[in-house]
Amino acid sequence: MLVIVLVVYCLAVPATAEDDAPFKVTVTKSEPKTKPAAAAVEKVKPKKKKAPRLRIATVGFAENWDPRHNGPIIRQAIADAKKKRADVVHFHECALSGYGGKLAEKDYDWDVLREETALVLEKAKKHKIWVVLGSSHRLTGSNKPHNSLYIIAPEGKIVDRYDKRFCTGGDLKSYSPGDHFVTFTINGIKCTALICYDVRFPELYREVYKIGARVIFDSFHNARAKKVPNNHTKIMRTMLQGHAAVNNVWISATNSAAKKTSWPGVFITPDGMIAKELPFEDDKTNLMVNTVNLKRRYKDASAPYRDDSIAGKLNSGEVVKGDPRSEDRTSF
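RE: above sequence
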């Protein structure tokens, strides 16, 4: 915009040399009119909560009854799992101590087992990683040891211990059975543990659902078989798939890779599908890492009626009452 200013000199003023000059016109520029700047409004988007995730390293290897042989393999697997960004490492039944048999002999070296266990704890602390370690837990006097899974926290401390509840007839020659569940939470995800022959008892897996655990660490020793394939080869993974699907849980299942192992370790999702499995081979150490993601949804066909079933209502919908065609079960 241009503003024109006319400056007129009054006649009454004494004349000067400039009186005869024409009107003086001064032209100035003004700043364009602008609207006042609106106060900046900072929009803060609410942060979306990340769904809890858990990276599980499932390990299989060929153990024997010498902890000095098993310990270095376990410690190396812990280091390898950390490199793969796992949160927890899962080992098979009696991975450190050796399984059954020689544990009942008088010359089994329990002091060496303690030393090797301490080294595993140190390794967990060094790498700041959870460990689910299969071993044997010595009791006092003449009591047989427990067949156990030590739950080791990243601080290098045993925070709990699961003792195999259902021992086979052969197990009972070497072990005392346990009597409790364990639960522990990693990255906000509630976990539990079971061992081998427990798989034959669906009541245990239903209890896992009832206590609210979402992940089962299931450790097995189905190796040194007379022949392969065998019954375990054909049914173990299938039973685990069923338990996962009907209870809506993830299962990390690991098995010994000693000579004539019956089946390889697997990772099963809540829909009962095997997401990944270890190589099926003897005398080799293998490790796989899988992720539990609570945000991901899996098919859960039991969901609408599972809680009713647990409560004792063993049908869906409403039962027809008083209909003779329904009540007479001998006619057609």
